[in-house]
Amino acid sequence: MRAAAPRNRPPAFPLRSPAAKTYLRGFGNEFESEALPGSLPRGQNNPQRCPRGLYAEQLSGSSFTMTRSKNLRSWLYRTMPTVDEEEFVQDDEDVFKHVATKYDHLDGNPNQVCCVAPLFLVPCLTDILQLRWKPAPLAPDGTPVTFLQGLWSIAGAGDPSAKKGVAIYMYACNTSMKDAFYNSDGDLLIVPQTGSLSIRTEFGQLDVEQNEICVIPRGIVFRVEQQDSARGYMLESFQGHFCLPDLGPIGSNGLANARDFEYPTASFEEVQGDVKIYNKFCGKLFKKISHHSPFNVVAWHGNYLPFKYNLTTFCTMNTVSYDHPDPSIFTVLSCPSETAGESAVDFVIFPPRWMVAEDTFRPPYFHRNYMSEFMGMISGKYDAKVGFSAGGASLHCCMSAHGPDRETTERAEEAEMSPVKFEDGLAFMFETSAILKPTPQAMSCPFRDTQYKVRDVASVKEGRGR
Ligand SMILES: [Fe+2]
């Protein structure tokens, strides 16, 4: 396909719009935004000539024929269309090259840093199904590491080419990306643990910090800019899109309220010179040179958009009588599967909350789960495990038995059943119906807690009730 020729007249707008820090609010709404007044066509999507000589371009997030309630698409009005004559070429190593020999917490092996194309281990019946990691190191001082360079995959399942499965990553970075990136394989949910990220997207700017999350849906171009050291987690869902869970008998309010989700407002840049664009496609990384910035969208409208959410606005539900509810009560976002009632993946948080259950073992109960559970700690302490620290992670795979450790169990059994407010930490869980498998680098990295399973078994070795 031939690239469209530049308009044969100077643009009727400045080269960069002021950074917009305001957000549009409301999950799943149809929004519209323009960085310059009069940039958005009125009454139609693609007029013969768009205002200001812009190009109209549709970005589809669902099949054209998807039911109206799930139909996702946006129209972007940009100074140049995305298509051009340059071709993507596969390049799995270049983006990681300069950190490969210096990023010693992953042993300096390029294959252990190059992790956006995860290679999952074949599952086997060993302790790998019950794993924990100490806090991952921050990006090393004096070595610039971008978000893309600092990504490493820790676990996953499925196949992006079949649009089924998930991948789970951690990141540690300390400098802004100069390039741009988009993911053809799925939606990305980013959970900062420390440090803030300024994420420039085609639709505008999202500033995300600890206690916030953001979602960058499949295909949307973005660049992560930041000045300080940052660390966090990322979930990639190859299937569907993140949506709010049904509330059922809870009613029309509660959990993550729709009004608290924030969407960017249009802003753009017209940089001189080339921009390198990376694309992850079927687990491989490709790159090309663009002769214009991909962040050249002057106006847009639609409902297929990146967004962010502040976890402290979560309206937590819990029992007010007895017993510990299933953790699904704390679900923030879900990607549904094709099986009614079963999520491909849920994003669940364990926020500060009152615990008032009477005659109840209040920590999470011992259990074996049909779903696979990956957990991370954003801040503070976890109420069911000693030694699970902020920046750490754990994986309890499908049907892997687990539960609170001995210290927690004994404390909970002796606890007075008065109301107690847990406010010392914020943990989260990526829970998926897929059987998660750890990556080779997740198994070999020096910060894997190799004593975790040993301690866990020791904690319950004294049988009781016989
Ligand atoms: Fe669990």
> How many helices does DSSP assign?
5
Q: In the CATH classification, which architecture of the largest domain applies?
A: Sandwich
* Mean pLDDT across all amino acids: 86
Total strand segments: 28
Name of the CATH homologous superfamily of the largest domain: Jelly Rolls
CATH class descriptor of the largest domain? Mainly Beta
Strand order of the largest sheet: 1-16-20-13-10-15-8-7-28
Strand content: 25-35%
Bound molecules: fe (ii) ion
Fraction of residues in helices?
Answer: under 10%
Structural class: mainly beta
Which parts are unreliable, with pLDDT below 50 for 5 consecutive residues or more? 98-117
Could you please say which CATH topology of the largest domain applies here?
Jelly Rolls
Q: In one word, what is the shape?
A: globular
Please give the radius of gyration in angstroms: 23 Å
**Whole-number tally of structural domains:** 2
Terminal CA distance reads 75 Å
Major sheet attributes: 9 strands, antiparallel
Describe the protein in words.
With 466 residues, the protein is mainly beta. Helix content is 6%, strand content 33%. It has two domains: 89-129 and 138-293 and 306-311, Jelly Rolls (Sandwich); 315-456, Jelly Rolls (Sandwich), CATH 2.60.120. The strands form six sheets. It has a nine-stranded antiparallel β-sheet with strand order 1-16-20-13-10-15-8-7-28. Strands 6-25-24-27-22-21 form a six-stranded antiparallel β-sheet, with no helix packed on it. The protein starts with 23 loop residues before the first strand and ends in an 8-residue tail after the last helix. 43% of the residues are buried. The protein binds fe (ii) ion.
